[in-house]
Amino acid sequence: MSRAKTLLLFLALTVGGGLAIGFLTAPGEWYRTLAKPAFNPPNWIFGPVWTVLYVMVAVAGARVWNLDPSGRAMKAWVVQMALNFAWSPLFFAAQRPDLALPVVVALFAAILVFIASTWRTERPSALLFVPYAAWVGFASLLNASIWWLNRG
Questions:
Q1: Domain that residue 73 falls in
Q2: Tens-digit pLDDT profile for residues 19-42
Q3: How far apart are CA 106 and CA 139, in angstroms?
Q4: Which family is this protein grouped under (predicted)?
């Protein structure tokens, strides 16, 4: 498969999957009624941030796929994508921030594994994941704070 087709496939999977999950699990009344920490961003920011991050994740994934589709970095990419796509249904659809928290922490760990796996051999892909790691680290703190403020 050509590099262009690989990139288009990764963009369709990542951006398309992310948008579909976001649409299907959009925050509703339950989320609006939750107590949130003072550092909770406005709701309008999540869509644009995730769209940009998904494009970066797709580009990194396509680059790594072209180098070594069965290597450690690609395996970490697949794991982080599965965890990413699992988080919203748990948090928003199931309304379980307690169950979503270990998923987002595992996602953060998988992102760090991807960065470590690509740092020497595919630095552009590693760098594309740095803002993603920062955002998911923040999302982990936000998830934990929402759980804490709304527990029991």
A1: 3-150
A2: 999 999 999 999 999 999 999 999
A3: 12
A4: Belongs to the TspO/BZRP family.
